[in-house]
Amino acid sequence: MIEQQSLRYSRHILLPELGAQGQARLGASSVLVVGLGGLGSPAAMYLAAAGLGRLVLADFDAVDLSNLQRQIMHTSAHIGRPKVDSARVALEALNPEVELIGIKRSLTAETLPDVVAKVDLVLDCSDNFATRFAVNAACVDAGVPLVSGAAIRLEGQVAAFSGQPGGPCYQCLYPADGGVDEACSTSGILAPVAGIIGSIQATEAIKILAGLGQPLFGRLLLLDASLMQWRALRLPADPNCPICAVQDRRTDNVGQRASPPPSR
User: Fold this and answer.
1) Which terminus, N or C, of the chain has the lesser number of Cβ atoms within 10 Å?
2) Under 8 Å between Cβ of 225 and 196
3) Which residues, including other chains, have CB under 8 Å from residue 84's CB and lie 6 or more apart?
4) How does pLDDT run across 71-101, given as a tens digit for each residue?
5) Rounded to two decimals, what is the model's pTM?
6) Is residue 165 within 8 Å of 260, Cβ to Cβ?
């Protein structure tokens, strides 16, 4: 088994910045993927291929024919099946060593805290602000890193948030009353754009979990695929943010919060 793992992850282990220790950290890590669509498909597949120890897969929806243009984890044979079940088939075929846990319901502000508290990092691959805000609040409360992605038309964005005091959170970027949901079903999306953004989310997750390079903490990465141009913007913390600023004040009242949780 050890020899097979060494061969499977040999190209990771060859990287001086990652090596066997970094690969071991990945194998001991747990990630929640919220949404198994255009972003969650490539993200989950790359995380499984990379040797994550546990993937928690959350999606309430079923596979539809219109999904298959961009949601590469699902196939025509799985139309009508829950996306969680379709994802399990694909990921088990890709890497049977990864533990897979499925959640076939909508995650809400009430149910998210318990789920987030049991993972080391969250990938938000959802498509609506209500879920994004709830995921962000749960991550800030638990001190769990969050990697958020979005894609529509020929545009995409990725940001990472440490979940620790002093840094920004998703709601610093989008106030709760300032966002308008747009859907691919009405606005359209170029299929590979979703793959690009989902792949970057997986890359950031691996970097954070393995201690590799410099994560996107405090930065927003924007893609204009029509020109194939990238922009990186600094994302400061909002001192009046109702989520992370309030959490910082709580931390000040009770003493310094602990460092990010170890791999579970």
Assistant:
1) N
2) yes
3) 36, 57, 58, 59, 102, 103, 104
4) 999 999 999 999 999 999 999 999 999 999 9
5) 0.90
6) no
